Structures are given as structure tokens and as C-alpha cells.
Amino acid sequence: MALEILAEGITALIDWAIYVLWFMILLEAYQFIRGGNEAGPLINPGSMDKFWKGVKARVPGTASRARRVQHREVNQYLLQQKEENDLDGLKHGAAEILTDLQAVHSQGEFANYKSMVALTDKIRQFGNTIRQTKQDFNKLIKRGDARVGNKLNQMFDYFKKKGIQVPQEILEMERQIYKLHQETAQEIASIEGLFREIVTSEAMKALETLDLKHFPNSYSPYTIEKNSDPFNESHLLFLKQKFGNEGFLLEDAYKKQIEAKKNMQGIILETRELYK
What we know:
This protein is an all-alpha fold. It contains eight helices and two strands, in the order αααβααααβα.
């Protein structure tokens, strides 16, 4: 009798385990079809629309997949805007430093110790901003290369299946973005190289050597002459020339980035109406 009860208990336990196993299998199938939170709930009472939305999100080449590709394009556009702003900030930073150097040259002196320290700090901060901008832009380039590498295939496949002709302008804008990115990257590398030339120059070393002891007092000027020591007129002219060159390079890079952003905006606008 006891053995029969034990056997029945084991059988019931096995049946329960099988039910649990089937439940887990069904749950895994549900998660696979659902496609994550992005696809939305798989089944809601009284609605099959969300069910098909969950299925479509798992099938390459559907409108749902194509829209997600375009969403990435929108995110890329936001990155383009950030890089434009970064380059604009650098451009204004170089112009401000050049203006300060021109003022010092016009006056023939640093008005006081504090003004000299402020200029030196601006130059150092400018270098930090260049390095950060280069890092951010390299990340943008990598994403752009990946986008150009597949030529928006996921999105274009959907258009082809729907018999929609992809405007040639889209492909041309994509190629132009890639070209402009490469040129801008070269410009930024030149800007960084020129700044490295500035900070390792005798002129910059002389400027950084200036200390309070070279001023009669903290409120008195330091006169810049041909033979003034440690910082002289030739040092000042060198810095003026180099930061003028930085400004030209940054202006060119900034214009290229604006053009790249316009092309990205064009891609978004051209493709928006193709999702029907």
C-alpha cells in the first residue's frame, strides 16, 4: 500500500515537472517571437495587431525593421550636430586666443600677471578641447563607415520588396557624407598637429616660463620687446601666426561638417515618405 502511494506521488511529480517544462518552452517561444520590449506586447485581449507587430519586428526587410534603420540615421544626425557644435566652439576658441595675442602685440605688453596667466590657460584648454573633439569625431567616423559599408541595405531591401525605387540622390548624399567625414578627419588631424607644434615651440616654452618674478608686481605690465627675456616679440609673432593658421583649418573643417549634416538631413527627409 505504501509503495502504491509512493508510486502515485512520483507519477504526479513527474507530470508536474513535464507541465513546468512545457511552460518554459512556450515562454521561450513567446520571448523569441515577441522580439523584446521594442516590438511591444505579443498578445493583448481583443487585439491581434500587436501580435503581428511582434512578429514583423523579427522579420528582416519589413517596414518595422526599416524604420529602426532610419531611427539610427536620425541618431547619426544628432551626432553630426554635436560635432558641428564642437568644431564651432574650437573655431571661436582659436579666434579668441588670436584676438588676445593681437591685443598684446598692439599694446606691446601683457597688462599684468593675471592677463598673461589667463592667456596661457586658454591655450592649454584649447588643446584639451582639440583632443576631445578628435576622439568624438573618430567615433562618429567609425559609425559612418559602418553605415556606408552596408549602404543602408536593410532599409533599401524593404524599398525594393515594395517596388519602390530608391532615389539616386540618397546614395549620392551617403557617399558625400563619407567623403566629407574623411576630409574633416584629416583637417582635425592637421589642427592637432599644428597645436602640437605650438605647445612644443620655443615661443610657448618662453611664455610658460614667465612668472610673477618677471613683473614688477602683480598689477604692473610686462613689456614685450625684441630682446625681452624670457618672452620676446618674435615669440609673440610666432604664436599669432600659428593660431591664425589654426583658425583657417578650423573654418574649413567646420564648413565640411555643416555640409555633412545637411546631407544626413537630406537622407532622412528623402526616405521619410517611403514608409507606406
